[in-house]
Write a structure and sequence with these properties.
The protein is of the alpha/beta class. It contains 7 helices and 10 strands. The protein has a domain of 90 residues: 4-Layer Sandwich (Purple Acid Phosphatase, chain A, domain 2). The protein is globular. The relative contact order is 0.13. Its EC number is 3.6.1.54.
């Protein structure tokens, strides 16, 4: 199972798991112990997930981007935010927040300070996103074929933009596709890969899960 980032609404450190986050950690561990290999990629909301959580949850941290083999095909996995190159302000902030020194400082701030900073950044991000044009916060069209050619793949899977779809592309003389996952708000989205191929599916949450998310 591959989790391509933003699995959590916010993550301020492995030492600050809420009861809900702890329950997710335990569920992942149970799945891992049952024999399922789990790979987790950072998103823009949970990029501070560290080795402590991954060890407890029984998952492996996956770099962004990563190429994996699915059904005998090379597939490029990304969170997707780095594809939004027209949002220059966000790209600059992303580069700053992901810097090892910044991460070190953030992880050593008092817990209360981290909570306040996370709320501030999230509120500012929501306000700025509402003010930006849709094409600015979506992937840059030219960036998609560029990175797919760089990694020599014909299938790209990413999230972040919350616009689930399978886009057919043409890269050179070869057919390609970009598969976009949806966010988990009122329903969940998964890309299922089996002998039948690639299938993008949504599902409704059970009542107990919906109550927890609210």
């Amino acid at each position: 199972m591959y989790i391509l980032g933003d699995f959590f609404e916010v993550w301020i450190g492995d030492d600050a798991m809420s009861p809900f986050q702890l329950s997710i950690c335990k569920a992942l561990r149970a799945l891992s112990d049952s024999g399922t290999r789990i790979f987790l990629m950072h998103g823009n909301r949970d990029f501070m997930i560290g080795k402590g959580f991954c060890k407890a949850a029984g998952c492996t941290l996956l770099s962004d981007p990563s190429v994996v083999q699915l059904n005998g095909e090379r597939v490029l996995l990304m969170h997707g935010d780095s594809l939004c190159t027209r949002d220059e302000g966000y790209i600059r902030m992303r580069r700053y927040l992901r810097h090892p020194l910044t991460l070190f400082i953030l992880r050593h701030l008092p817990l209360g300070t981290r909570h306040k900073l996370a709320r501030k950044l999230r509120n500012e991000s929501r306000a700025q996103t509402r003010m930006k044009a849709n094409d600015i916060v979506d992937v840059t069209p030219d960036e998609v074929p560029r990175i797919m050619q760089q990694f020599d793949v014909r299938t790209l899977v990413h999230g972040h933009t919350h616009r689930p779809a399978i886009h057919k592309l043409q890269i050179g003389d070869q057919a390609a596709r970009r598969i976009v996952l949806g966010d988990w708000d009122r329903q969940g989205w998964v890309l299922q890969v089996d002998e039948q191929g690639f299938s993008l599916n949504s599902f409704d949450f059970v009542p107990e899960t919906t109550a927890l998310l609210n």
